[in-house]
Structure formats: C-alpha cells, structure tokens
Amino acid sequence: MSSLNESNENGQTWWRSLDEVVAGDAFQAQLQDEFPEGSGELLATGDDRRHFLKIMGASMALAGLGVAGCRRWPKENIVPYATRPENTMPGIPEQYASCFDFGGISQGVLVTSNDGRPTKIEGNPEHPDSKGKTDAFTQAAILDLYDPDRSRQVTYDGEKSSLAAFREWVNTYLPKAGKGIAIISEPSSSPTFERLRRAFMKKNPQAMWVEYSPLANTNEQIGLNNAFGGQWIPVYNIAKATSIVSLDADFLGAGPMQVPNTRGWADSRNLDHGNISRVWIAEPGLSVTGAKADERRSMNPAVVAAVANYVAKQIAHTDVAIEGTVALTAEQQAWADKMVADLQHAGKHGLVLAGAGQPASVHYLVARMNEALGVVGTTVAYRSAGSGSSATIEELAAAIQNGSTQGVIIIGGNPAYDAPANLKMLEAIKALPFSMHLSMYEDETSSVCKWHLNAAHWLESWGDGLAADGTVCVGQPLIEPLFGGISSLELLAILAGNPETNGEVLVRATLLGKSADNWNPKWRTAVHDGVVADSAILENPPVNRRVPEGGTVVSGEKFTACFVPSSAVWDGRHANNGWLQELPDTITKLTWDNAALVSPQTAKTLGVKQGDMLAISVGSQSISIAALPVPGTADDVIMLPLGYGRTNAGRVSEGAGTDIYPLRTTATMWSAPATVSVTGDSYPLATTQTHFAVNSTPGKGTQERLPLLFREGTIDQYNADPAFAKHVGHSSHSLSIFEEQQFVGAKYKWGMTIDLSTCTGCNACVAACHAENNIPIVGKDQVLMGREMHWIRIDRYFAFGSDGHGGYDNNDLTAVAIQPMTCQHCENAPCEEVCPVAATVHDSDGLNTMIYNRCVGTRYCSNNCPFKVRRFNYFDYFRRDPLRSTGMLQVQPDYYIKAQSGGKTLRAMQFNPDVTVRMRGVMEKCTYCTQRIQRVKIATKNAWVKKTEAQKQADPRVAIADGAIVTACQQACPADAIVFGDLMDTKSRVTKLHEEKRSYQMLEELNLKSRTKYLARVTNPVDGAAATEGGHH
Amino acid sequence: MASVPAQPFDNTGEDPTARSPLILNHTDFGSVTNDILKGNESAKPPKSWYFALAVSFTMMSMLGAMIGYLIFTGVGVWGNNNPVAWGYPIVNFVFWVGIGHAGTLISAILFLFRQKWRTAINRFAEAMTIFAVICAGTFPGIHIGRVWLAYWLFPIPNQMDMWPQFRSPLLWDVFAVGTYFTVSLLFWYLGMVPDLATMRDRSTTKVKQLAYGIASLGWRGSMRHWHRYERAYLLLAALATPLVLSVHSVVSFDFAVSQLPGWHTTIFPPYFVAGAIFSGFAMVMTLAIPARQLWGLKDFITMRHLDNMCKIVLFTGSIVGYAYSMEFFIAWYSGEIYESFAFINRAFGPYGWAYWIMVSCNVITPQIFWFKKARTNIAIIFTASLLVNVGMWFERFVIVVTSLANDFLPSSWGMYEPTWVDVMTFLGSFGLFMTFFLLFIRFLPVLAIAELKAIMPIADPHGQGHSYEEMSMETDEQAKIAEEDE
How many CA atoms lie within 13 A of A417 on its CB side? Predict the structure, then answer.
C-alpha cells in the first residue's frame, strides 16, 4: 500500500503474507497514516496479532462489499489475479454509488471504477435531486482526486508531522482549552457530522461553532425564519410551475440545486404538455436563467427589491420598508403589473424566487407571496434544517479580537481567503496560538494555521448527507486515500474524543445504530443504492411569523458592484481544477479568469473595451480587474464573479483572475457602492468566442445569419405552425458530386437531437465529455490562440434590436441563443472527402469516425467542417505544462502525466481506458461516444448469439434497446436536452424527435445530411408575439 | 570579342518593316559565349555575390532551424488555430508554386508559340521554377501534424493495404506538383545539355571538366545529337504545356473543392493560373533586373524583353483584377448570405487591410504598364515587380486566412496571427530560394547559350526571322557611330 509521498518500490497490491508486510520498514513507517484510529499503537506493541487480524478482516470485508481495497497505481507488470475479487472482471468498469456535500445539499453520484481507479462520475438515478444527472462541478470532481497539487501530509508550523502527533496534541490541548476554542465548518447536511458535532459540543460546551461559506444564502435563511420561524430550506418543484418569477435568482445557474431545478424547468417547458411555463426575471447581470427567461429586465439590485415590494403588495398584500430601494419607472411598473397578472393567473402553479443577493426582507416577501399564491406543496416545499451555527463569523472575529477565543479548528473551507474582508481573518488566525485546518490543499488558510491536516477526497472516504428533500444519502469510498488524509467525519470523531474514528463505522452507526455491522442488509442496500429509500422529510412549515422591521438593499449612487459566484470555480474551491478553469462561462465564454462584467453602454461611458483594466473601489479597498462588456447587464452595474485570484490553491490556479473578496465586507456581502476608474492598462482575456463590435462587418454578419442558425419562435407561432423552424431559410434538393454513402446492410443508424428549448448551457455536457474522452486542457495561452480542445461546446449568441440606422444596438438585447455544438456526423461529411489519407471515414452505422493512427494532421478536414467542431492537437497537450505561456520549449516529456505528479502517473489514472489518448499532430472530435456504443453493441451481440434460431430470426438486426446507449453529454444533461439513439428503430425517442415538426438540421443547404438535429427553441413571452426581452431602458 | 560597351539602344520600338534585334552589340557566336559565361568562368565572382550568398545561406540555415524546432515541438509553434487551421505554410506554398509557374510557361508555351525573345530568359526562369517549387514543396511537407508520416500521402504499396484517399485535392496536389517538378527539372536539364558541354569544353580545371563532363552526357554537338535534342525538347515542351495549366488549377482545387465560402468558387482554376503567371513574371523581372546588371547580361536581356514581360504582367494582372470583381459579383448575385458575407468581410472585415494591399498591388500597380515610359524605366519595372510579388502573397493570405477566420458559425470565428516562427520560416524560404539561385548563376549557364545563338542574325542566312541584313546594318551603323564617338 504505497502512497505517493514515499518511494516504496514494492508498490501496493496484495499482501501475500501478513508477516512480510508487518516486517517491512516502510509499512511500519506509514502505519500512522494508514490506520489513524490507533491500530498503529497496536502493532507497535507487536503482541496483539489477533486484534490486527480483526481489523484486517474488516478491510477485506469492505473489499468484498465493492470497495477497492487498495490504491492502484498503474503498473507495467502483467500479473493475473491469484484469486479474483468477487464481481470483478479485469477491464470491465464497475459503478458504485456515493455522495458528497455541496453547499449543504448532498449530491448523489455513481462513480465508474476501472480496475480500481475511479475514472468518471455520473448522477445517481436513485437520488431524488440527481435522478442520474449531474452538474459540471460534479463531472470535474474526478480530476480533483488526481490533482498532484493536493496536500500530501500533516504539517505543524510548516514542518512535516503526523496524524498521531496531532491526536496526541489534541488530547492534551483540548481538555484544558476547550473554552477558548472555535470551530469553523462548512454547511454540511451529513447526519454523522451533526451527530459528532453534538458530541463535540457536549464535551466542549463553551466552544464556539461557526458555520461559514461565502456563498451561503444567509439572507434566505433569515427571511424564511421571519416568515415561518425556524430554519428552512426551500425545495422547488419547478416542473409544476406555469409562471415563475425570479427576483435576481439564478435558479438554473451553478449551485447545489442546479440539477433538480434545471430538470424541473425543462419539464415545465415540455411542449407535449400543451402549454409551457413562463419565466420572468429581474436581475442586474445576465445569468443563465436570464438567458433562458421569457420576460427579462435588467436592473440594479435596488430596483429588483422595489419590484419585489411592488409585486408582494399586490399578491400577498404586504410589503416591507426596504432602505435603498428606488421608485419604479412607469415602464417597469407596467411590466410588473403583467407579472402580477401572470402569477395570479397561475395561482398555485406560480412560483416566486429570490436570489442570494437580495436582502432578507425580500426573501420574507417571497415566502409570503408563495404562501399567498398557495403554491406551497405544489411548486415549493420546505425542509426543516437545523443549523449547526452557534455564532456567526463576525462574532468569531470579535471573539478573536477580544482574546476570548484562543484557537480555531477549521474543518474544510478557506476562511482566510473568502471571509468578509473587514474581519481580516487571515491576520486574526495567524495571530492565534492554536489553529488547525483540514483541507485537501495547503491553501491560504492552511498557510496561516499551525496545524494542517491533509483531507481525503470524498471519493476516498465514507460520508453521508441529505438530499434537498431530506433523503438520506450514503457515500462510500472508491479508492484508498492516495496521499493518506482523513475525512472531516474522522477528524470530528477525533476531536470529539470518539473511541471509534473509522469513517465507515461512524456513518453506519448514524444510520442504523452502533449494533449494526457490515453485513446488515439495510446497510448494504443503503451503500449499494447510495440513498435510503423513502427518507424524504419535506413538510409545510408551521407559520410562526415575525414580520421584519425593514431591510437594506445596497447599491451605489453611480456604480454598484454585485458579487456573484463563478460558474467555473464557484467560491474559489475549484480554482485548481483545470477542466473547470478552462470551461467557458455560459454567458461570457471566458476561461481562466474572471472579469468585471459591464453593460455595453457602461463600457462606452467608461471608454473601455474587452480587456481594459478597471480600478474598482469599495470603501477603502480597491482592486484592478479587466472589463468585459456583456449585453444584458444593467447599466452602471459591475458584476464581479468571485473565486479567482487564489494565491495558494495550486499550480493550475496560479495567475487565474482577480480576487474579489477584498471588496466584500459583512455589510456588503452581495452588492456594494463602488467607484470605478480606468487604469489604462489592459489584460488578455481568453474567451472561446471572439468578440466583434456589433456594427462591424462580422458583427452585422452574425446578426444576419442568427435566425438561420438558431431557430426560435414563440409559443403562439409554434401553435399556429409547429414546423415554423423548417420554414426559416430554404434548402433545395441538392446533388452530391460524389456517390453518397448508402449504408447498405447497416444494422444501426445512430442519431442525436439537441433541444434548444431546454438547453440552458450549464456546461455539464462539456465537463462530462472532458472526463469521458480524455480531453486535455490547453492552458490560457492556447485558448487565447483559439486552440481549446472541447469536443462539445456551447455556442452563445446575442440577438440585438435595430439601432434605427440599418445597424444593431447592443444595448437592446432581444434574445440570447444558447446552442450546444458538436460533430453533427453528417452522412455527406465534408471532412471525409478532403482527407488525403482516409483518416476520417464513415462506418456502416453512420458514425463519422476519426482514425487517430492514420491521421497525419493536414487539418484540411477542420477547414472543410462547416461547424468547426474538429480539434487539432497542436502540441502534446498531456506532455506540456498547460498552465503558463511557455517560451521556446513548449513540450516537456511527460510533464503533465509524470513530472508534475512527482514521477507517478497520477494524472493518467483518470484516463478512460476505452479512449485513446491522442498525441500531437492528430485531429480529434466528438465520436458520439463510440466506446459506449461498442460496449453495448458487444453485449447485445453476445446475448443475441445465445438466442434460439427462432429468436434470432425474429431479431435479425440485433436491435439494441432504446436508451441502452447513453452518450456522456446526454448522461450528464440535467435538462435532458440531448437524446441519442438508433434512427432505424422507429419507436426510439431519437427517431420521434427527429421527426418532430420543430426539428431542423444546421446548414441543411450544404446537403450534409447531418445525423444531429436541433429542436427549435420555443419561448413564451407574455405578449405572445416576438420575444420582448429588453435589457436596457 | 566584341567588347562594345553596352549603351542604350532602344529595341522596344515596333517597326512593321523590321524586327527589332533581341541581342545587342553582338554579331558573332564566340562573343556571346564569352560574355554569358563571364560570370561562371571568372576566377572570383563579384563581392556582391559572396555577400548575397552569405545572407541567403544564413536565412536558409534559419529555415532549417525553424523546421527542426517545429518538428521537435509541434505545429503549435505556428499561429494556426481552430478556425484558421491553415496559415502561413499554405499561403507560402501557394505563393511559391505561383512563382514557379512562369518558368515552364516561358520555356514551353512561348517555345511552342515561337516567341523567340523567350530564349534570353527561359533558362533562369526555369531555374527559378525549380527552386520555387522546392520551396513550395517544403511547406505542405512540414505543415502536417506528423511529418514523419508524410509519405502516407503518396500511393506507395504498403503492408497496411491502404491507398491514399483519391477524392482529396491534397492528393491531387501531390501528383500535380510532383509531375510539374519532374517535368520542369527534365526540361531544364535537357535544355542545358549543349551549354554544359560548352562549359565542359572551356573548363580549365580537372574538377570542372569532370563535373561538366558528366553533366553534359557526352554531348558532342553532332548533327544527330542536335536532331534528337530538338525532337526531345519539342516533345517535352508539348508535355509541359498542359502542366502549366494543370498545376495551379489543381492547387486551386485545394480551395475550390472545399465548401467554405470564399473558397468554393468555380472561377478559381483560371484565376489561379492567371495569378500564377502574373506572379511568376513579376518574379522573373525581380530576378532579371539585378542579374543582368551584375552579370553583364544587358545585351541579352534587353529592354525589349522587359517590355514584353511588362505587357504580360499588365495582361495577367488585369485578368486577376477581373477575377476579383467577378468573385464579388457572383457572391452578390448568388443571394447566398454566407457567400456574400465572405466577400464583404474580405474587403471590409477585420482583414480588410490585407485585401486592400492585395488590390492595390495586383490590380492598380500593373496598370502603369499601359505606358511605354513605365515599361522602359528600370526603376519603375523593378518597383512594380516587387509590389506584385507582395500583392500576390497577400492574395493567398486573403484567400486562405480570411475565408477560414469567418466561415459559417460565428461562434467559431477567430483571428489568426502568425508567430515569429511563421515569419522566420517564410523568410527562410527566401534564403533557400536565393541560395539555390546564386549557386545556379555561378555554376550553371545562366542563359541558354545555344538557343540564343539560334536567334542571332548570323544564324539565319536566309534572312528570315530577325533579319540578318537589317540587323547587321543596324549593328554596323551602331559600331560606326560608336567609333565616331570615340
């Protein structure tokens, strides 16, 4: 059981005899890390061999349960198993259910393990939020596991130490200093965590427990506490809503509830239901929800609060005096009136949501409105959630200040980086005599703490949690901790003085009591399923109202800075994840950086263009950040995505973006009055779509062709003519110069549809494709050169109104087009015809295949691809430091795979063994996940061979059941916008969608006969006519 | 040896009663041989030759270094990106192939049309062709992602049982350029055999005797040799003639056969051929003007030759201009938004500057050759020929880059910027070209000596062609005038 941080050439694997292992020096040395609960001492005494065997027995039992018992570094020896572990077939991947916490909501996953290496994460179909789907963060989490920058050891004062030393220290320190101790933890839904927290607090009643997360929706908690009394988490069932009003709530955007919200919303847009929902949104910046909304107005947060008050007055006959709001204009009022009418019309199928940036009083109003509309129970339900906090972070800062707190234990999180700037947590923690941080990275907080404990990834540890509706989830490890490390549960057990510190035992005891053992059938079912069935605890909250006296919404006199989470790195925690850093933001298409997002009008007033530096000051704090004009942003609002500018996050995050947290104080958590000046410097922003001025030739050209490429219509247009999309543009019968592919004898005809109505551009598919297809990241300098490698990308276009002089007005945003684009698998593929070496050809099933071995890299195929979905390996991206612009020596042998990982092939462990890792000089592109198709085809064929002759004759085609093959993008898509299947199967979903009236082919006039069809977007604006979203007033 | 000082003599006039002489100040064969081989036979070439060779060789070495760097590191050292997968290398390829066009045109087509003035320029125009095609051939070779597999583009029987993909224009390119190069090389070499024999006979060192002896294939100048030689030369000329049209037509198919707006146009083959002749003649002039000065060849490459070439440049430049306007017309007439956008974007989009450089160099500049004063002014001719070379490079840049940068889906539009490696590689290819050319003028007969003699009046005792009597009279008169002046 070797780990990365020591050089044990014997490597891991199976112990042939216990004596052999026990006698080894290396084993003795690392025992401390391996069995933190004390077996080290057991062995050191050397006599209690029986006890040791007992522990080993438990480990073996775990292996039998389906946990890979060992770290499996890829080795070059080929040695057969002496005895094959149960249910394991070498080369056949297996899936295990697990879960992890994100923002206090447990995310259910199924993790694919290839010969003991977790390689891919999917949603857990049993999990009520996931239902088999995931967001981009979850898809990318697998890369964190193999991050070579992860912390590999326990340190004290920067020196290497051990967990045993820490335990000893805690045992002596805590009992005498428990009073002056504070614990900072992240919001957690884990029942075990809560149980151990109570145990700890019981032992240390004077300790201060602070739950802090920079993006926690505290305003909502306070608002709901006012409305109902107690701690409540709202759980939305958007599928049942017909009218959804969002007050700056990006419910389709990144966040712990993105998956269920997106699924629900997509369901509410299903045209088969006859009617589709209408989404209203009032927001300062253009969010994903805003892009997909039917009625959108961009406005300062203060105006949003005013809209909330105005609407609440009419719906719930209540309002709250909110300081800082401004009067609505007549136009805004008229718009809000329509909104009210629509909500009232929807009745219990209405839904009002408010964003984290809105004050608590607005959340209170929202709860009142939902109550008044009678939607509780249909579109919204609540779950009671006891908060573990006994104090806020401000109180903690004050306690440190006045000396009553002498030590902090920080379990996860990164308060030194992301706490409100006015609390000066970094300096405060640094000054304390005792501080300890459990973290996967030696980050900003670790750097100022005395103790740093390396945390295990959730894929390496046991855990549990609650889904949004309270369903209990159980998470099992897929691999032993690569670098040692313990989970937060294990740490808390140590702190609480719990005799049992084994994660599995702790979780099992919470779920089934201490008496339950590993063979308990309930336990085995829960671990197998990842969830405990029927454990949801939704309820209608009792009303115990405390009408808030008022509230404040912060906005500036001229400029208002709004702080929003980053769609890539969230609050900064994913900063060292290359897939996420390179994931283009849905709206801005920006990678590797954050930027100050301003409206085109504001940019014009300031005299800046993309990449010009702005100095933004809030109070005495000031930052410099590059400007990025984004249509649809409210004028004079500066949207600032958090989470960038990390200093200690690891090599990937170095130099990525600007830290916004210095501007964020306890009084200005979400928005702040700001002053803005232009510094005159500029900074390159790596966007994956090139920006052209709106009235330049390419800008106009874009607007002119947009209706052809992205076809959309209102629900009225659709009802009048469901095939409206087919009547945009015209295509004549084209003849091919060459003989067309006939697909004679084909058994299958693979095809895909992408529904533009429901795709939100959440990027889950892009991240999933990264993980599935071994796609490299290329680094910022390469993105700047236009060499990103994503096989599937999300195209984003802004449609503008006329400026009255034959041009377009980029302050008048009429629609946002979001269109996933990947290889269309054209039957008359232009790429194939021009390849001189036949490296890209069709197979009989209609796949446009790419033969890497044959490719010499003329790149002609890319030139001739009208969709430009082909990706060329300009370098050996897996052998190159992708993280910084390199000079002459652009390729270092095995940089990414070995050198960066300290000689181990750490990065390679994530690779999907079914997909070739491409070398430089070859072209690549979407394959429709051919490896997944093959897997199912082979299995189906094997089953078919065993059938009787009669059965075989009845199924000469060896038909594959619809839905048996799921592409990676389709599998991740929470909106279910991507459907893949066999077009030869007349009953398959994809065939039906291909025949759907609103389906169309991209660039049909080129006679491509593409296998991917798009379903035109149908919107539901209130006036029924053309979309009337207007961003600017 | 008639060491008559070269003096301005206007042989550019068109006198219907008499043909203008094509060789000045020479009446006998011997002096022609002497003067042409002066540069080859002098013990030391001029200092400027050494200087030029040093510069060219340095640049050629730089090309080698760039290619080495490219192969060791990856195509990513260039500026090519996702929409613009072809950048400088293909621009340079088409540019050099275009330059390589004039040689065979001059030697084959003008030969078949009995354009006697071609004899003064055909040898080095052919040499230029060979060297330009070598430069051109380098680029597609190195621009592919896996250079070591470039041989897969050739139809070589192999254990994989794989043929190349015959529908791909890139494969046609391999055949077209390969054939063109082979035939041009044979044609050049065959034409050079009598002159090599002359050099052999005049060689003073053993090494030279041996080298030229081997190269001249045992030529003795017998009647039978001449008979076979002229037959073969005529046959090769007939073979090469279709190649003149095919090679650049096929190169244009690289673009025309694709379906990219701005590439997919039927006008491309004739337009490319005209453009190639245009750039080829411009390059011949660019080389001829300094060469006739330095190598003392003014009597052979006379103003009349330059005048004729200027006329061809004017003609082909106008064809190119017509093609530019016709592209625009068709783009508008098609009513196809992608097509019309491609051309409007070319002229007024982000690469508009390149387009207008192209138009001013290729269409406007040659129009000056409507005026005889311009056609007979060395400085103007030289400047114009340089501008045409620049313009024709930009034409390829405009075609390759602007079409790719903004094609169908605006989401994938992107700008292309060459890197320093791109620029140095391009400059290095000039080094390669010039090194070959400088070695050529030093070691090989720079003009077709034997052929030149055939168009001299004394070669034509029957008074046909460039009339013996008239010419000898003229030259005699000149000689007298010269004597009187002295």
Answer: 27
Residues in chain A, pLDDT under 70: 1-81, 85, 87, 175, 177-178, 387, 544, 730-733, 882-897, 903, 1024-1033
Domains (ranges, CATH) in chain A? 154-214+388-458+486-510 (3.40.50.740), 232-384 (3.40.228.10), 554-687 (2.40.40.20), 697-1019 (3.30.70.20)
Predicted local distance difference test score (pLDDT) of residue A818 = 94
B258 in A contact zone (CB under 8 Å)? yes
Are the Cβ atoms of A890 and B77 closer than 8 angstroms? yes
B399 vs chain A: nearest CA distance in angstroms?
13
> Rounded CA gap, A619 and A612, in Å?
22
**What is the fold of B29-146+162-469?**
Formate dehydrogenase/DMSO reductase fold (1.20.1630)
Question: Within the 348-407 window of chain B, which residues sit less than 8 Å (CB to CB) from chain A?
Answer: 348-350, 352, 404, 406-407
Interface check for A867 against chain B (CB to CB < 8 A): the answer is: yes
d(CA A568, CA A892): 28
Q: What is the 3 state secondary structure string of A425-448? A: HHHHHHHCCEEEEEECCCCHHHHH
- Flag if B259 and A864 touch (Cβ within 8 Å): yes
A 683-742 → B contacts, CB under 8 A: 689-690, 692, 696-698, 701-702, 704-706, 708-709, 738
Structure tokens, A283: 């927001």
Q: What is the domain partition of chain B in residue ranges?
A: 29-146+162-469
pLDDT tops 90 at residue B108: no
Q: Which run of H or of E encompasses A623?
A: strand A621-629
C-beta atoms surrounding A515 within 10 Å: 8
User: Phi/psi of residue A27, each to 5°?
Assistant: -65, -45
Contact (CB, 8 A) for A121 and A496: no
Q: What is the mean pLDDT of residues B466-479?
A: 46
What's the rounded Cα separation, in Å, for the pair A1028 and B7? Answer: 81
Could A867 and B404 be called an inter-chain contact, meaning their C-beta atoms sit closer than 8 Å?
no
B341–A704 CB contact, under 8 Å: yes
Compute the distance between CA of residue B363 and CA of residue B384 in angstroms, rounded to an integer.
11
Residue B337 touches partner A, C-beta closer than 8 Å: yes
pLDDT of residue A290: 93
CA B91 centroid distance within chain: 16
Residue A864 and residue B258: Cβ atoms within 8 Å? yes
**How many inter-chain contacts (A to B, CB under 8 Å) are there?**
194
**A610: number of Cβ within 10 Å:** 20
| Of A457, A418, A458, A411, the residue nearest A436 (C-alpha) | A411
* Residues from chain A contacting residue B75 (CB–CB below 8 Å): 857, 872, 874, 920-921
- pLDDT of res. A91: 79
From A696, which residue of chain B is nearest by alpha-carbon distance?
B349
Question: Is the CB of B226 inside 8 Å of chain A's CB atoms?
Answer: no
| B41-63: average pLDDT | 91
Alpha-carbon distance A18 to A3, whole Å? 19
Only one residue has tokens 């309270």, namely: A470
pTM of the model: 0.87
DSSP state of A633: P
Nearest chain A residue to B145 by CA distance is A921
Are the Cβ atoms of B164 and A838 closer than 8 angstroms?
yes
**Which one, of A780, A762, A878, lies nearest residue A581 by Cα?**
A780
Q: For residue A792, which residues of chain B lie inside 8 Å, CB to CB? A: none
Whether B448 and B122 have beta carbons less than 8 Å apart is answered as yes
Please state the ipTM of this predicted complex.
0.89
Check A704 against B337: CB less than 8 A apart.
Answer: yes
Measure Cα distances from A640 to A596, A599, A934, A1031, B268 in Å. Answer: 5, 13, 45, 19, 51
Contact yes or no for A666/A423 (Cβ under 8 A): yes
